[in-house]
Write a structure and sequence with these properties.
Elements lengths: L21 H6 L9 E4 L5 E6 L5 E6 L3 E6 L4 E6 L11 E4 L5 E5 L3 E6 L5 E6 L4 E6 L5 E6 L3 E6 L5 E6 L4 E6 L5 E6 L3 E6 L5 E6 L4 E6 L6 E5 L5 E4 L2 E5 L4 H5 L6 E4 L5 E5 L4 E6 L4 E7 L13 E6 L5 E6 L3 E6 L1
Antiparallel strand pairs: 1-28, 2-3, 3-4, 4-5, 6-7, 7-8, 8-9, 10-11, 11-12, 12-13, 14-15, 15-16, 16-17, 18-19, 19-20, 20-21, 22-23, 23-24, 24-25, 26-27, 27-28
């Protein structure tokens, strides 16, 4: 695994020119940066997708094109991935193994493990319940599934069958695994976000939200959790409790400005987040501050629909990040 680069290099150059600092950054008066370059990966309507840990691969699920794998550094589409021949699959979730050698796609009832080197499907399985979300383990042999029957299930993708279940009191709509696969986190519509020991199935810690949890993410070492509830500020927490609530304006959070995608840096010191209004933020966790922000462009500037940030990623270049947009582009963001 490549080492996590030091981030960021130019902290001292950041100026927030609006009154209220962060409020200004979110409202747009400080002119967030535009992408340096963009690569079209779908004609339109990306409904789900994933970027690899190093930002070099994109797995795109579009209602118009089905699934496809892109190698971003080479700006090349390598494979079309669908669950049935001669038809486009409506992919509901996608994820990469930590090393990027395997990828997982799901629809409502099936999951397929793909080899990114050959493009071949290695395994194909049916799920006992509706698959709402998924996270592929570090070696691509296990996956954590969020299911509609109130379970998060650790699934043996290599051999088939459920390894263990993590039970909830409502639908599990978001899950994540740590970089080594030892820890899992799940978020349910009951407002609970729970950190689990994936090897024993025991709960380690939990955080209760007042609304359905729509996003959870886990640092590589499993020590730091991000959870975000609908119409609530996102929280960073550990086994000891909440360490930071991301300072988004309360009134805008209640109107739907929430975090819908996120990624921790490998060392857990920084966090990238994406919003449904096309904003991407880089946060310094150690110093509890917003470092930089970008605005993803619309395909058509006059179109009323906002562009959503489907996924974000750090790259091996400490001044470059990537974001996958709902309008069918992967954007290079520089700092």
């Amino acid at each position: 695994m490549p080492k996590s680069p030091a981030r960021p290099r130019r902290q001292g150059l950041i100026l927030l020119v609006c009154t209220g600092l962060l409020a200004g950054a979110l409202s747009g008066c400080d002119r967030p940066a535009k992408p340096e370059s963009s690569l079209e990966v779908a004609a339109r309507s990306v409904q789900t997708g994933a970027l690899s840990r190093d930002g070099n691969w994109a797995l795109v699920g579009s209602s118009y094109h089905g699934g496809s794998l892109w190698q971003l550094d080479e700006r090349e589409r390598l494979y079309d991935w669908n669950h049935k021949q001669d038809s486009y699959t409506l992919i509901t979730s996608a994820s990469f193994s930590t090393d990027g050698r395997r990828a997982l796609t799901t629809d409502e009832r099936t999951l397929v493990l793909w080899n990114t080197d050959t493009g071949e499907a290695e395994q194909y399985w049916s799920s006992p319940s509706e698959i709402l979300t998924s996270s592929l383990g570090p070696d691509g042999r296990v996956a954590l599934l969020g299911l509609g029957d109130y379970r998060a299930s650790l699934y043996n993708v290599g051999g088939g069958g459920i390894i263990r279940n993590f039970h909830h009191s409502d639908r599990v709509s978001t899950v994540a695994l740590s970089g080594d696969g030892r820890y899992a986190v799940s978020g349910s519509d009951a407002g609970t976000a729970t950190l689990w020991n994936a090897e024993t199935g025991e709960p380690v810690a939990s955080e209760q939200h007042d609304a359905p949890v729509q996003l959870v993410r886990l640092s590589s070492d499993g020590e730091l959790v991000l959870s975000s509830g609908r119409y609530e500020k996102a929280r960073l927490w550990t086994r000891e409790g909440v360490v930071w609530e991301l300072p988004l304006p309360e009134e805008r959070v209640k109107r739907g400005l929430r975090i819908i995608s996120a990624r921790f840096s490998d060392d857990g010191a920084y966090l990238l987040t994406g919003m449904p209004n096309g904003r991407v933020f880089l946060w310094d966790i150690d110093n509890r501050r917003l470092v930089y922000r970008w605005q993803l462009p619309k395909r058509k500037a006059w179109h009323p629909t906002a562009v959503s940030v489907i996924d974000v990623a750090f790259t091996e270049d400490p001044d470059r990040y990537r974001a996958l947009s709902s309008e069918g582009f992967v954007h290079d963001l520089t700092y």
